[in-house]
Amino acid sequence: MVRVNVDFRVLDEAMESVLMVSRELFEEGLVKSTFGVVSARIPDTDYVVITPSGFRKEKVARDNLVIVNLDGEVVQGNLRPSSETPMHVYIHKKIPEARCVVHTHSPMATVFAILEMDIPCFTSEQAHAFEGRVPVVRNYSYPGTTNVEELESIVEALRKSRVALLRKHGVITYGMTYDEALDNAVIVEELAKSAIFAFLLGKPQELTEADIEYMREFKRKRYGQKPTSRP
Ligand SMILES: [Zn+2]
């Protein structure tokens, strides 16, 4: 086994961040038992840090993390990487700006995955976060799939919304930062919960395309902090 030749600080940040996201997912109740996967592309390399197979996320330690290449081959680490490694490396390969990829079976969002139904865009929050519906991936795939057509359909859904529902399985999302990947996993669960209650209590109506476009514009122009200009 070779140890990867990567700047120590860069590798350190990627590993610590994967551990941080894993712990936060557990704290948020989005991953239970040994389910759920976190991976991170090590910047400026073709390597990915990924959580090991069969480990509870709150118990994963730095020595348990595995480094794989974009073909999913282990290049560093003593444990087997997640059984979902083929999906994670495929996403990292096809969406290079994805710093962190998160997979959960968070229960409310999984209700929509079970029903093979998009999460409708009922709220301005959803329009703000995901710019519309949270889509179901076109193809059904078995967990751990290596089928390229199935993997491609997962990437296609993620390109639409950065978060997608794996049919009869769970949630897949990515972020350009670790916080964004984590937030997406948290927010999709909250939105799914609100949508389920809305269906239980009445007949909710989706936002119109114009409403969604307004939120896109709002996010672009009026939300968050302006970058400070430094002399
Ligand atoms: Zn899964």
**What structural class results from the helix and strand content?**
alpha+beta
The largest sheet, given as strand count, sense and whether it forms a barrel, is:
7 strands, antiparallel
- Give the integer mean of the pLDDT values: 93
Tally of separate domains: 1
CATH topology: L-fuculose-1-phosphate Aldolase
Shape: globular
Q: What separation lies between the terminal Cα atoms?
A: 49 Å
Radius of gyration, taken over Cα atoms and rounded to an integer in Å: 18 Å
Assigned CATH superfamily:
Class II aldolase/adducin N-terminal domain
CATH architecture tag = 3-Layer(aba) Sandwich
Unreliable stretches, pLDDT < 50, 5 or more residues? Answer: none
Number of strands: 7
Bound molecules: zinc ion
Give the SSE string. Answer: HEEEEHEHHHEEHH
Counting H and I runs of at least 4 residues, what is the number of helices? 7
Under the CATH scheme, which class?
Alpha Beta
